Automatic annotation (TrEMBL):
<protein>
    <submittedName>
        <fullName>ATPase</fullName>
    </submittedName>
</protein>
<dbReference type="InterPro" id="IPR027417">
    <property type="entry name" value="P-loop_NTPase"/>
</dbReference>
<feature type="domain" description="NadR/Ttd14 AAA">
    <location>
        <begin position="5"/>
        <end position="166"/>
    </location>
</feature>
<dbReference type="InterPro" id="IPR038727">
    <property type="entry name" value="NadR/Ttd14_AAA_dom"/>
</dbReference>
<dbReference type="Pfam" id="PF13521">
    <property type="entry name" value="AAA_28"/>
</dbReference>
Amino acid sequence: MDRFVVISGCSGGGKSTLLEELRRRGHQVVEEPGRRIVIEELDRGGSALPWADAPAFARRATEMSIADRSSAASTADLVFFDRGLIDAAAALQHLTGEDTLAALSKSHRYNRHVFLTPPWPEIYVADRERKHDLSAAIAEYDRLCVVYPSLGYQVHILPKVPVEERADFVLSTLNGGNRHSV
C-alpha cells in the first residue's frame, strides 16, 4: 500500500527516535514487532527470543507484521512502520532457508520508498531487548540493503543528522522533493 511506509535499517541507528518524531508530527506509527515480542517473551518467561530461538522469533515477527498491516488498513493517512514484514520474512529466510520472502513481499506491499538507518556506532546501545552486538546489527543491515532493492523498493539511506532533519528528509522524499537513494 502506498501509504504504508517502512523505516528499517541498522539496529541502534535511530529508527525509534525518528518514528517518535513522526508521531509527534501527527503521523500514525506502528512499533517494531521484534521489540514487542522480546518484551512479551521476557515478561512471560518465553523462548521466542532472537538469542534463544531465532526461527521462532522470526515466525512470530512475521505473523505480528501481517497483523499490524491488517490493523492499519482502516487508516487513510500515512502509516510509518518500525521495520515490517519484509524484515521479518528476510530474517526467517536467512535463518531457515524457507522461501517465505518472495511470496509475502508480493501479497503485502509497502510504499516503494523505504528508509534505512545506516550503522551509527556513536549512538548504538545494547539493552534488555537488544542483546546483539554492532557487528550483528551491521550484518542484518547489509542483508536489508540487498533485499529491499531486489523486491523493487527504492531505498533511501537516512543521513546522520538531528532527528528533526531526518523526519524532514523522509516527508520530503515521500512528497517527491528528494531523489537521493541507493
